[in-house]
Write a structure and sequence with these properties.
This protein is mainly alpha-helical and about 230 residues long. The chain contains eleven helices and three strands. It has a three-stranded antiparallel sheet. Helix 2 runs antiparallel to helix 8, helix 5 packs antiparallel against helix 10 and helix 10 packs across helix 11.
């Protein structure tokens, strides 16, 4: 399938047609593909923006649908809906992995089915829709994936490390948690990210993973462990 056909088919699947198709092209371009194509941009910057758009839309959705749920529970629910595992499942509904443009190495190593790549592209597509048409179509796209019955949604336990750490730290209003990328290594098709979680200016945990999100979760998990917190993974 050529690139133009790929873009056209994906737009049919999501029910949104871009005024500026270059945004969608960028959203579907993994860094391994961009590195092989001179002058092409990867979807990493769009992923950054899409993460924020996703968070505010999901926050608004659960805020209005769960009127009696306390703040801590809202945070846990949001975490389960925007984590890598959840986004990977949402992306399967639109066959996103089949439309991502990958470099040869990534293609040959199964990148189309790698959760970190697909979930990042999912966020990048959100950003592309937002930049092309504004918040309304971006929100419409996101909400199609939201479960109708939030009460019976399965908890995604590994997504709760960051939320749990935040809940503990926010008991002291003067404390602030921040996640800082410490290192990035490996070829485009097998990246490894190392992230430090900082409490004010002190490193309290370090994590490594195939995506920044997973590395942040591992850093939060280590911080909780070092703080003596017993995290229930059941």
């Amino acid at each position: 399938m050529n690139e133009q056909s790929n873009l056209e088919q994906f737009q049919e699947k999501i029910g949104y047609h871009f005024k500026n198709e270059a945004l969608l092209y960028e959203a579907l371009s993994h860094s391994s593909f961009a590195n092989e194509k001179s002058g092409r941009k990867s979807n990493e910057r769009l992923e950054f923006l899409g993460d924020s758009v996703l968070s505010i839309v999901v926050s608004s959705y659960i805020f209005h649908h769960e009127q009696k749920m306390p703040e801590g529970e809202l945070s846990k629910l949001r975490a389960s809906l925007v984590c890598e595992k959840a986004l990977f499942e949402f992306a399967k509904e639109i066959d996103l992995g089949q439309h991502i443009m990958l470099g040869k190495g990534e293609e040959n190593s199964g990148g189309r089915n790698r959760p970190s790549i697909v979930s990042d592209a999912f966020e990048a597509v959100i950003a592309a829709i937002y930049l092309d048409g504004g918040m309304e179509p971006a929100a419409k796209h996101i909400l199609r994936f939201m479960p109708k019955d939030l009460h019976h949604r399965e908890n995604v336990s590994f997504c709760d490390y960051k939320t749990r750490l935040q809940e503990i730290v926010q008991k002291n209003p003067e404390e602030r948690v921040e996640y800082v990328l410490a290192a990035e290594s490996g070829p485009a098709h097998d990246k490894k990210f190392t992230v430090n979680v900082m409490l004010n200016s002190n490193v309290i945990g370090t994590g490594t993973g195939p995506s920044k999100k997973s590395a942040e979760q591992q850093a939060a998990k280590e911080a909780l462990t070092l703080m003596g917190y017993k995290y229930d993974q059941t």
